[in-house]
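Box 3.1 — From sequence to structure: N-acetyl-gamma-glutamyl-phosphate reductase
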Amino acid sequence: MIASIIGATGYTGGEVLRLLLNHNNIEIGILTSESYAGKKVSDVHPNLTGLVNQNFVELNMDKIIEESDVIFAALPHGASNEIISKIYSINENVNLIDLSGDFRFDDLAVYEEWYKIKHTDPELNKKAVFGLPELYKEKIKKAKLIANPGCYPTSAILGSAPLLKNKLVKTDVIVDSKSGVSGAGKKLTANTHFPEANENFSAYGIATHRHSPEIQQEMEKLFGNKVNLSFTPHLVPINRGILTTIYMTFNEFMETKDVISLYREFYKDCPFVRVLEEGKFPQTKAVSGSNYCDIGIKSDKRTGRVIAVSAIDNLVKGASGQAIQNMNLMMGFDEKEGLRVVPLYP
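Predicted structure (token representation):
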């Protein structure tokens, strides 16, 4: 089958391409870029030198639909909405995975409030499936449009889902996340400029980050009730990785070993979630370059809280690897195909 990428020059587009080269069922199709059309792939992604011998091209809607079995859209928020709507107006049977936030929200008023963008296709939005395989595997298998989750939401939702689903905690949830600089994308900003980010550690988007409503939406679905979420992201001077610490208060105290057993049962059919042994906790280095999410648990009897720590690679399980995992489910492949990548360590 042929997979094409719209917006293949960014970090997520490049990671989709890198991982697809390991996939036994996929051939690389059209790779689009408006700013780098005509340039070699290796000019933008030097790690793919000698591995992808083609050039980026401008987007031709009819051509990419005709020549692709599945399309990945790795575009900025807003731009993705418009282009995907046009694709489905031409052919409603396209298999497409969107890595932007444009189709992740059940309530478009929430999307428009937090993203400051008017959604142009409410009807298509209703057909999109939130692409977190650990929660929505069966829906993903039947979908034509997958809304790939954000990186922070992936780490936060996976880290809290078993307790929320079983209603073992109260409604107040605190999520504290640290992300590497690649999460901001390739475009240079003052905060991600090397002299600003290096040897620095800062919080940002406090109470205003646009991943907050996405996390809350999915937590409330799991819990079946309103969740009072506080989410604070931080920028740390590493290239890739997210470490998320989640604080929840038990309804009735559970020992750490019992919570770990709960998590292992919940994720027993999820090949990319690794629930660590008691006393061990995740680190970004242990998942770097891979599609794994590592989770560690500690119950605190003194406070009545449970602390869950999750680690992912923001560009892989937080974006491109998860997109390929979704494609595998969509297309009937082995869920792990193309993603059997051992994390880089150290």
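Summary of the box: The chain has a mean pLDDT of 97.
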